[in-house]
Amino acid sequence: MNKTVNQKAWFLVLPVLVLVAFSAVIPLMTVVNYSVQDTFGNNDFFWAGFDWFDEMIHSDRLHAALGRQVLFSAIILAIEVPLGIFIALNMPKKGFWSSVTLVLMALPLLIPWNVVGTIWQIFGRVDIGLLGHALASLGFDYNYTNDALDAWATVIVMDVWHWTSLVALLCYAGLQSIPQAYYQAARIDQATRWKVFRYIELPKMSGVLLIAILLRFMDSFMIYTEPFVVTGGGPGNATTFLSIDLVKMAVGQFDLGPAAAFSIMYFLVILLVSWVFYTVMTNFDKEEGL
Amino acid sequence: MTRSRNANLFLLVAGAILLVVLALLFAAVPEADGARDWTAPLIQRGWMAWTFPTGLFFIIIATLLVVFTWAAIRFPETPRLGILRIETTRGDRLFITLLGSAFISLAWLAAFGSPLWGALVLCLIYAAAVFRWV
Asked: What radius of gyration do chain B's Cα atoms show?
C-alpha cells in the first residue's frame, strides 16, 4: 500500500510551536542576551563579551554547587533504584491487596513539591515535629537547621520518601508484563530466586528501569522546591544545589549576567545528559526489537 | 517532482525571511561618535536586551535549521551507523556538532580564556569530523 506524502500536517504543529516559542524559546534567547552583557538595573545593558562565562567556569561557588548536586543525584539514585526494585518484587501481584498497595504507593507522587517540603520541614523539627522530637527523645543530637549532615539526611530521606514509589511503580509495570511461561521454564530448570531475578526479571525490566533512572536523574538534578522549603539551602551553603544557587544569584543578588551564563552552562549539561539517555534508550529499543 | 519544488519553495521563503531579519539587524545597530557600535543594545531599555552579535548567532542557528530541513526534504536519506555505534541522520549530526561545539568553547574558556577564535577553529574541525565519521 502506498501512502501519500502529505507535509501539510506539519501546519498542525504550529500552535505548539507558538506556545513553546512564547514559554521557552524567547525566554532562552533573552538569557543568552543577558549572558554577554552587564546591567545595573533599569534595563540598561553594557557589553561584557564572554567575561561572565569566564568568571563562572572558574567560580568556586559554581564548582561547589555542582559537586553537591552530583553527589545528591548519585545518592538518591543509589538508594531509590534498588529500593524501588525491591519493593516492586515484593508487591502483591493481584487481588485486593495489590490495588491497596498501588494506591498507597501512588500517594506521595500526588503531593505537590512545596507541600512535601512543608511536611518534612515540620516533621523534622525538634520542638513540634514527630520525627525530630522522637529522635531527640531517643538521645540523638538531630537538628537539620544547624547540622549539615542532618540537613543532608533529611533532604535525602524526603526525596526517597517522595519518589521511590515512581521507580517501584514503573518496575511493577515491567514485572507484570513478563509472561508466566518464563517463570514456569525457570521452575522446570530449578532456577534459584536470584537467577530468576538476574536472568528473567532484570532483563525484562531494563527498559522501564532506564526510563525510571532517567526521570529520577533529571528531576533530582534540577531539584529546587523541596530543599528550598526544608533547609533554604542551609545550614550555610550545605544543601545549596545548582538551581537554588542559580535563583539566589539571579533573583537574590540580581546578578543577571553571571546568572545567565550559569544557567546556560546548566542547560548544556542537562541537554547533554538527556541526549545521552535518549540515544541509549532508542538504541536499546532497537536491540530489543531484533 | 512536487516534493523538490516544495522544498525549494520552503528554502526560498525561509531564506527571504532570514535575509529580511538580517537586514533589520544590520539597520538596528546604533551609531556612537560617528562609528557603528557593534556591541551596544539594539533597542535601548528593551527587555530582551538584543545585541548584534547575539542576533547574528541566532540567525546562523536558524539558517542551519532551514538548510538542514530543506536538505532533508530535497535529498532524503537513511540513517547510518558511525563510530559512536548509534544511528544518525544529518540532523542528529548537526545536533551533536552544535552541542559539542558549546562544550569545546567552554573548555577553551576554562583553559585559555578569551578570545575564542582558537575554539572556533577547533569547533569547525570537530564539525567536519562529526559529519565525516559519526
From this structure: 18
Distance separating alpha carbons of residues B130 and B90, to the nearest angstrom: 10
Nearest CA in chain A to B87: A283
Which residues of B fall below an 8 Å CB-CB distance to A?
3, 6, 39-41, 44-51, 53-54, 57-58, 73, 85-87, 95, 99, 102-103, 106, 109-110, 113-114, 116
Contact B45 A43 (CB under 8 A): yes
> Is B99–A272 a contact, with Cβ atoms under 8 angstroms apart?
yes
Closest to A261 measured CA to CA, from B4, B26, B106, B74: B106
**Residues paired with residue A37 on neighbouring β-strands, in sequence order:** A47
Contact A45 B41 (CB under 8 A): yes
pTM of the model: 0.85
Identity at B15, one-letter amino acid code = G
Residue A93: which CATH number? 1.10.3720.10
C-alpha cell at A135: 529522635
Both B3 and B61 in one domain: the answer is yes
Number of separate domains in chain A:
1
pLDDT at B1 over 70: no
Helix axes B52-74, A26-35, angle to 10 degrees: 140
Q: Identify which of A32, A268, A286 has the shortest CB distance to residue B54.
A: A32
Residue ranges making up the domain that contains B133:
79-134
Which of the 8 DSSP states describes residue B83?
A: T
C-alpha Rg value of chain A to the nearest Å? 24
pLDDT in tens, B38-56: 888 888 888 888 999 999 9
Mean pLDDT in each 10-residue stretch from start to end of chain A (290 residues)? 69 91 91 90 84 89 92 94 93 88 91 91 89 89 87 92 93 90 90 89 87 89 90 85 90 89 92 87 67
